[in-house]
Specification:
α2 packs across α7. β1 and β2 form a beta hairpin. Strands 1-2 form a two-stranded antiparallel sheet. 70% of the residues lie in helices and 3% in strands. By secondary structure, the protein is mostly helical.
């Protein structure tokens, strides 16, 4: 299960999506999230799914790698689906004991499940196709206007990037701890829910210790390199838009206009 978590990982590649400016990809991801909540019918979701499929194909990130990241949230998907299908009132379709499935509940359950899947896949593509350093620079550049009023934009961007960067590291560390505990006879699979929760204690304690150790090592490394924050900092590679970025921007605007038109006229 730990190996299936792909959040925050970067998939190395030379695709068109990988070469896009990080700022454009961040803005596109935010707009895609907004569009998913603006859409109010399945036709709109179909349009979003088609566009997302084209982007996934252009990114050349394997579909099985993307879908592997869906496994850890499968429980959340099932819980959300069941919550909507049984709790929303409407015309009764099927009754299972004291529970009943209504037409409104079924519609909402499917609607929310599709939205959640598209949301996770769409946002995951940002980290799959963007290097952490580029992501940091992109966030800092977009937050640049806030720096004029005293907001520490570089520090905020650095913290967000470090958080994303160390998710895979902590997951790998968790996997090592679980294997070490299993080698000592620990059982994480059998028993009821309470017993499984208690079995996690031998994992959480060394994981917290490891996380603090990693944080301390990172802080010492930054101090050894005389890191002083964003003030006066220069970059080896300056971010600038190219022809491909301008073309992608036009496509993004057209997609946004199409979603807005569907929301207004249909």
């Amino acid at each position: 299960m730990i190996r299936d978590i792909t959040i925050g990982q970067y998939y190395s590649g030379e695709s068109v999506i990988h070469r896009l400016d990080a700022r454009l990809k961040i803005v596109a991801t935010v707009l895609f999230i907004i569009e998913l909540f603006v859409v109010n019918d399945f036709i709109g979701f179909a349009l979003c799914a088609v566009c997302l499929g084209i982007v996934v194909s252009a990114s050349k990130v394997p579909l099985n790698f993307i879908m592997r990241g869906m496994k850890p949230i499968l429980l959340i998907l099932i819980f959300t689906f069941c919550l909507n299908i049984f709790m929303i009132p409407g015309n009764e379709l099927v009754r299972i004991g004291f529970l009943k499935i209504t037409d409104a509940g079924l519609y909402t359950a499917v609607f929310m499940a599709i939205r959640l899947v598209l949301l996770i896949v769409g946002t995951s593509l940002l980290t799959f196709t963007t290097k952490p350093i580029n992501l940091t620079d992109g966030i800092e550049s977009l937050l640049g206007p806030l720096g004029k009023i005293g907001v520490p934009t570089h520090e905020l961007a650095m913290m967000m990037s470090i958080a994303l960067r160390f998710i895979p590291t902590l997951l790998e560390e968790t996997d090592k701890i679980i294997k070490a505990q299993q080698a000592r006879g620990a059982d994480f699979e059998s028993g009821n829910l309470i017993r499984r929760a208690k079995a996690l204690v031998p994992i959480l304690v060394p994981l917290f210790v490891s996380a603090f150790r990693i944080a301390q090592d990172l802080a010492m490394a930054m101090e050894a390199r005389c890191y002083k924050g964003g003030k006066g900092r220069t970059r080896l590679h300056q971010m600038k838009f190219g022809k491909i970025d301008y073309m992608a921007s036009v496509i993004l605007v057209l997609f946004l206009a199409a979603v807005i038109c569907m929301r207004i006229f249909f």
